[in-house]
Amino acid sequence: MERKEFLNLVGISIGAVILQNCMSGCSKTSDPTPVAVSPTTPTTPTPPSTGGTTPTVSGLTGNNSLAKGAIDFSVDITKSDFEILKTNGQALVSGDVIIARTKSGDFLVVEKACTHQGTTVDFVSDNSTFKCSNHGSIFNSSGSVTVGPAAKALKSYSVAFDTAKNILKVI
Ligand code: FES
After folding, report:
1. Domains in the chain and their CATH numbers?
2. Which of 44, 82, 83, 121 has the fewest CB atoms within 10 Å around its CB?
3. What is the pLDDT of residues 101-135, one digit of tens each?
4. Residue whose CA is closest, atom 3 of ligand 1?
């Protein structure tokens, strides 16, 4: 073998080795090993309540939601979620109604949504009225409008209070 042939052969071999190293190096950086991604476990939706006793509200029996039909429920005012009603002059919202206890101890229950634009009304214990903070409508103790802009009365519900059992029935 002549010197020129030998150098050509060595040059080809070195070039092949360099090319091989470059190819393997490049493939490591541009072709990463895929990482398996676990699918997120879907959240199981909470089934809608079918009415009746709401498990998260202690002391409520029946329906206080207009979406579920006629309002017809009882509350035990010795239970923590309703015990504020043991005090005269207090009120709370339950479902779609507001339950108020006047300063003289009577119970009033009216729909909570102002008939003007739906804002939840507040109980004003000083004069046993319901006032909307949005535009100032005022409703008397039976839900009738005394000050607009609301033009329609709040629906008022009948109440019966069992003093021995501390159960307030609303229909
Ligand atoms: S929403 Fe009550 S007065 Fe307008």
Report:
1. 60-170 (2.102.10.10)
2. 44
3. 999 999 999 999 999 999 999 999 999 999 999 99
4. 135
